[in-house]
Structure formats: structure tokens, C-alpha cells
Specification:
Layout: H1 16-23, E1 53-59, H2 76-93, E2 97-100, H3 108-121, E3 125-130, H4 136-143, E4 149-154, H5 160-163, E5 172-177, H6 183-199, E6 202-206, E7 212-216, E8 221-226, H7 230-236, H8 242-254, H9 263-282, E9 287-290, H10 292-297, H11 306-314, E10 319-320, H12 325-338, E11 343-344, E12 346-350, E13 355-360, E14 377-382, E15 387-393, E16 400-406, E17 411-422, E18 433-439, E19 454-457, H13 461-470, E20 474-477
Parallel strand pairs: 1-2, 1-3, 3-4, 4-5, 6-8, 6-9, 9-10, 17-20
Antiparallel strand pairs: 7-8, 11-19, 12-13, 13-18, 14-15, 16-17, 16-19, 17-18
Amino acid sequence: MTINKRVSGDGNGVSRRTVLTMMGSVPLAGGALLGKGGATARQSARGSTESPEVRVAYLRPREKYWLGWPGTSWDPDGFMQKSRAMIEQYAREYELRVTFEPQPLYDAAATEQFVARLNADKPDAVLAIPLHMERWPMVEAIAKGGIPTVIFAGLGTAFTGHIQKISRMPGVYLASTADFDLKAVHFGLKMVQTAQKVRNTRIAVLAGTETREQILEPFGLKLLYLPRRRFPETLKSVEGTPQVQAIALEYRDAAQKIVEPSQQDLINAAKNYVASLRIMEEEDCQGITMDCLGLVKDRQIPCPPCMAWSRLLDAGTPAICEADINAVMSHTLCCRLLDKPGFQQDPVPETVNNTFIGAHCVSPTRLDGYDKPRAPFILRSHAESNLGVSLQVLWEPGRTVTIMQFVGAGKMILGKGKVLRNFDTPPAGGCRTSVELEIDGPADTRDTKGFHQLFIYGDHVRDFQAYGQMYGIATEHI
């Protein structure tokens, strides 16, 4: 059934003008509870409350440069002054504490003392910046210290032989680059922030009947298992408040068109969202997943949580289908590291054209970032049950897409593709958002690894590889 989006009232005695006025005070993801990136006012209650600390050291000769790269004409003092200001700016952006060594590390003895202080103080990370080719043995001594290490090697400070070994060491992110705006350092500091955010994130897992906690090492994410019945019990207490009606109207008006859902379906979908927020707030969690298909199958909820999950992801809050713990980790890292959501999908190899199709009934719309415009979408029902509200999100043909999935807490599989087209259901079967990719391997898409992999706008394979190397997570191609 297609319904008219342009109506004068909301069906419950509240005018459209009144609801639009109320929407001005209804944030994307729940007011005081959730802000940009899904952070909460109480996010640090179960983790470190201190900002991560990064120690910064420059390594250079004491005497005036003479011959040897970066060259006598290069200005190390000017670079140190400029780069320090940029590092301080980036640290403020990510709420990090940076401590600069009072003097550059001039020799092996100074480096040895620096490493000893690192081992005693245990900062969250170290940033090492060599300013001469002769300093690489000292850089390697720092990298071997066991503290996550970011190394910036500006053009003129390293040949292939200097960095081949150290750039592949566990716990190291080495950027050998001509980018003297230090974008690589910016990303390195983002990884440090992300690692703490992950360890301060707890996901509510509504599945089964038990209440228990788990930490997924080496990733560090916390899980709080709650009885599945918690969601329908909470949902019963959610009324059709002005906030609920405003959310329903927002989606009704933002959609390109509405096919199956009725106005009551939209109200029910908005109630799912409010119930999710309520559970996360009550349990001090910053994300949610549940055995949603079980609840739908047993008719314990009138509407699957597809729209609620999409809305949460659009605000950077991990919201994961089917209580899939691998997908929980994938979504959490994607949201925290990239500041954009991913699309968890069921993979289908297309054997005629050797392409790769991913389909699911939950897709975020802010695919380019939480503060970016929404992708176009159509309001549909949840395909398997033909209930409630699912967003058919239309992915842009030609866009580069990263494919990523955790396989256990210590391994990620990664790949890359390009959007070819979207499928409608019907004539196709399967889930509402259905996207076909041309991918970079394997040679036969029937051999693609994984299930519920994320599709993410942009080329982020090297970003995930860097995070994995720095924090002990293996990576391999899909």
C-alpha cells in the first residue's frame, strides 16, 4: 500500500505544524543521551575517565646538519615549531594529552632513557619523528618498547631499507610521506582516540535469557548480555508521545516515496527507537543488538527494529542486526574510527557476471558521515515478514566501497569494490536495501570470505590495516 506523504495531520490529533515545531527539539539520536558519534554523558563510567596520553619525541643530530638527507638546506627547527603546533591542534580535536620531550633525542643514550620512561609511565601511545636518516636505529628502539607507536617520516628522512622492517612491526603505524600537513599524524592520533573509545563502549546484547558481561580481547569492546524479553517489555511502556510522532513524520517527509508502511507502522518504528534509547540509558550502554528475527518470528513485537537501527547508525551509535557479535565489532570500529556508518549485509555471489550483491533491511542513510546529507531512501516494509518499516537506501553507482568484517576479536577481513546498481524487491527477493558491487577479488566471487560484512563508502582498507597493526588485529583479504 502506498500512502500519501503530504497530509495535514498525523492521525493522532496533532497537527503537522505542531509536530514540525516539536521536531526542532528532537535530536537525531535522543537528546542528552546520545551526541555526535554515539558518545554518552556517562560513556566513561565503565572505562578510563582520563584522556589518552601521547608522548612526542623528535630525533635529530645535536650538531648542525652537514650532508646526508634531509640536507643542509633543510630547516629542522622551523619544521619542529610548525609540526608541534599542528600536533597540539590535532590533540585538542581528539581530546588527547600530548607531552613533548623537552629536548630532541640526540643520541642512543637519550633514546634509551626515553624508552625507560615510557616503560615506567605507560602512556597510551608515542609519536616519534625522525629528522635525519641516521636516527632510524633509535626509532626502532622506541618501536620495540611495546607502546603503540606512530612514526612520521617526512620525505627526505628515509629510504626503502630504513623502513621496510620497522613499518611492519606489530604496534607500529609508520607514515613515510611528503604530506607535511601531517595528515598521517592526524590519523595516527585518531587511532589512539578510537582505541580508548572502543574500550569505553559497552553494547547491550538482547539474546537468550541470561545477564552476563564479556570483554572481547584484543579488540577491547565490552558486551552486556540481557534477556531478549527486555526489549518487548520496554516497548510496552513507550507511548505515542510527541517525540515519537515527530520521528515518524520526519521519515515520512524525507522519503522519496512510501510503499508498504502505514502511519501506524511509522509510529511503531519510532517507538522501537525510543525503547532502544531507554534500554541503553538504563544499562549504561553505547550500542545495541538483539535477536530481532526471533522476536519477529514469535510475534513479540509488532514491528522489526529496522528504522530504529538505521537512525542510531546515522548518529554513530552501533546498532546491529541479529545479535551477530562479529558485526557488533565491525560496526563499532567503523563508527568510531571513520565517523561514518557501515551497511551490514547478507552476501550473494552473482555467478553470471561474477559480481557481489549485499542485501539487508537495515541500512544507514548518512553513508558519507554523520554530519553529511542523507542518501535517498524509500520507505518499505521488512521484507521477510512484510511488517513495519525498513529503509530501502539507494547507493550511488560508481562509488568506491570498502568491505570489512571482524572474524573473531583478533582478525578482520577486508576488500574493496565499486557500486554498480541497486535492486528493487520485487522483482528480486531478499532484503530491501540490495546493492551490487564489482569487487577487487577473489577471482571467483563464490570464494568470498565472510558473512554480514560491512559495505562502507570510501576506500578505507589501509585505514583498517593500520589500526589492526597498531592494536594487534590481523587482517586478510576477503
